[in-house]
């Protein structure tokens, strides 16, 4: 096996991007929100400083927890790192790994399994509430995510996301409607999955009303840093997938070079982060009982994707 | 030469296993000491190992024999054969039987005072013989005889704890279900015999128009036995009741054997009735959603597992439906995926469900309750049970890299491939919808099993009994724990080496799809084993390098209580509050009602009484089955009037019957 310098550099660049980008996205969201509220806000790089600070603090663990509590942080981060290599969050991929649609979804579900258990582990009411809400939201969102991706896969007749999102699949060229609907459906679903507004307000101080923050209330120091970082990485991956859908909707990118696409992927993810900030600034958190109606938009888009996919394969 | 040798030795092994178990029944008469339990467990274990080795020998070499020909059942002899389809199920039987054997002595030691050990062993041996011979039966008559032996002995095992009202009710419901199921299956068999003139199961083909009626009857019988909606109502009653080791066999094999029968007759018998495919798809879908929804709302740990079986049986039935559909459309790849999915998932589900039932039994033994609202915090006192139950839950939620993930993946791929196959657009729409429904059911089962693990094992103990629970009477892992570990290891091994497992199923798949070119491992191209390795390395390195070094300095403190002082365990989530939001969304199906009562002088600020009650009425049981049962009761109490007790009236009956017979005799 010859060591290809170019490939090594590509891999290093890719790894560095997905490891360093996530806190920046959150920094951008926070900065934009601050500007909307007429504040200067913390620096864009603040999430990095926060993570570093957390890593150097000493940890406090509830005495009621079991081994689940601390292993969750390690498991979730590892699964998300694997997902960063598997899921098509950017158009640029250093290796040709088969990334099966159902494997990607179930790896995400695995992180949820651990998160929910670690929330229940300390036996606090907050964790329990958060966990209960998380599984409820997941249940509503999951069909929409899988149907968006499955209808894309159905048109291209492959469940390999690397192939579906490769700009090479001629079945999917000139399908801007399908791509756009899938992108929007996935974006709305991501808002819910990532515990952003209008499903959950990540900046309130009342954990009793929250989803993600309520679940990680007992985590501290390095454990919290890992959990937070995993969440940031999840933001990158989920926003990345929906931004890839939107990029595929633009015919220009089908004919451009790899470098432009890679740049556009990053730019689109950051743009989505800004749009999240805008949504969080102008919209309010929905009442818990109203959330199914919001998720219905995402489900409706996924059902339209299914219709397009069924129609496309007619001839 | 080798083939002859295989034939003889495999046949001998199976017969010897049955004979050994038969001898075990005799051994129960020996004494009443603990030695006897261990001896009988050894007999059971050796029989299971013989069955396993028999399965291993005949894996690739179908065997036909009739060593039991002295058992003539009038219409046909007790012919036996071992073909590729029965081998995986025999292997599952051997494995679960071994787990049950390991678990038995410690289970019996815990329930010494009941004094029903003798019955336990006798019934278990009969049950095992029934299970093995059902799988070996080559003709319908032998099948039915052993099917009945299996059903009746398992019904007696369900009634093992018959002093309790709950067990009586369960045994009665189960017995009713098995009667209905056997009636349907017998009718189907008679129809097929009429059509083909043969009792041999292998000679029956369901591709003629006349076979439709038999296929419908068969489906009805199998659905009743497998616990498919709407015939599933017996399942949550009966599954929790048998003794711990039996519950593993019961949950892992009884429903699976019904599925086995369906596969043997409809898939291997190349069924081509579209209506059967659609009905199977529809019933399977409804049971999947219904089962998991009720599992989620359940408060009893074992009933939760039982409802989850309804879900999984439903999923398997949909796969069988698609296999029939694909077969009649001539889609070889979809048929292969569907068949592999159905077969692999039924084996995996059997394995995992047995593991989970053993775990739940271990919890019940330790905490003396199955109510999740009285459990909690068991991870400290029951570390091994917790580990095994956790792995089992991961697996049944189809989390990678566990075994059920592979089979669930095959099912997803089945529907996904059907969605762009050359079939009518309605079927493609159904296929894509099924992908969504599977995802929905998957998310619900994740909610259900995070609830089972999180509420029962994590958090703080919700009752005194849970706080004082001990893993085993002696404190050391005993047979019940070892049995769980055995099944856990099996789950992980299958999950991380799926291509090998699927290659093992290749002969069975070839038989089921009539496609000799099919290779099992080619259906699962994902490098799951490698990914597991990478994942495990990542997890351990992150744990060691980021968290491990800080473990020593980490401070152990109370759970955050907002500064209000010690938290009451009543502030924790309970099972019902965890699933409440989902229950609200589906309140129409679940018939869930919440009533809130807040009263007192200053009701708004200082209420004296705050009372919230949740009611759930099982809609199927109250709206459909209760009226049916009432009608039956009314009918039978009306018929009682015939029996007056007066000899004159009875003589009149005899006379009238005679006249009727004479009339019939002269006119026909």
Provide keyphrases for this structure.
heterodimer; A: 315 residues; 12 helices; B: 668 residues; mainly alpha; two-stranded antiparallel ribbon; two-stranded antiparallel sheet
Write the layout of secondary structure elements.
The complex is a heterodimer of chains A (315) and B (668).
Chain A: H1 5-36, H2 46-56, E1 60-62, H3 67-86, H4 101-121, H5 125-156, H6 161-164, H7 176-193, H8 212-215, H9 221-249, H10 251-254, H11 258-282, H12 291-312
Chain B: H1 2-27, H2 34-57, E1 63-65, E2 80-82, H3 86-110, H4 117-136, H5 140-158, H6 165-196, H7 211-226, H8 235-238, H9 244-267, H10 274-297, H11 301-329, H12 332-367, H13 378-381, H14 383-396, H15 403-418, H16 425-457, H17 464-467, H18 479-496, H19 498-513, H20 528-547, E3 555-557, H21 575-585, H22 587-590, E4 592-599, E5 609-616, H23 619-639, H24 647-667
Antiparallel strand pairs in B: 1-2, 4-5
Helix pairs in contact in B: 1-2, 1-4, 2-3, 2-4, 3-4, 3-9, 3-12, 3-18, 4-5, 4-9, 5-6, 6-7, 7-9, 9-11, 9-12, 10-11, 10-16, 11-12, 11-15, 11-16, 12-14, 12-15, 12-18, 12-19, 14-16, 14-18, 15-16, 15-18
Explain what this protein looks like in three dimensions.
The complex is a heterodimer of chains A (315) and B (668). Chain A has 315 residues and is an all-alpha fold. Chain A has one domain. Chain A is 70% helix and 1% strand. Chain A contains 12 helices and 1 strand, in the order H-H-E-H-H-H-H-H-H-H-H-H-H. The longest helix of chain A is centred in the first third of the chain and has 32 residues, at 5-36. In chain A, 60% of the residues are buried. Chain B is mainly α. Among the domains of chain B are: 273-498, no CATH class; 620-667. Chain B is built from 24 helices and 5 strands. Chain B has helices spanning 2-27, 34-57, 86-110, 117-136, 140-158, 165-196, 211-226, 235-238, 244-267, 274-297, 301-329, 332-367, 378-381, 383-396, 403-418, 425-457, 464-467, 479-496, 498-513, 528-547, 575-585, 587-590, 619-639, 647-667; strands at residues 63-65, 80-82, 555-557, 592-599, 609-616. In chain B, the strands form 2 sheets. A two-stranded antiparallel sheet of chain B has the order 1-2. In chain B, strands 4-5 form a two-stranded antiparallel sheet. Chains A and B meet through strand 1, helix 3, helix 4, helix 5 and helix 9 of A and helix 14, helix 15, helix 16, helix 20 and strand 3 of B.
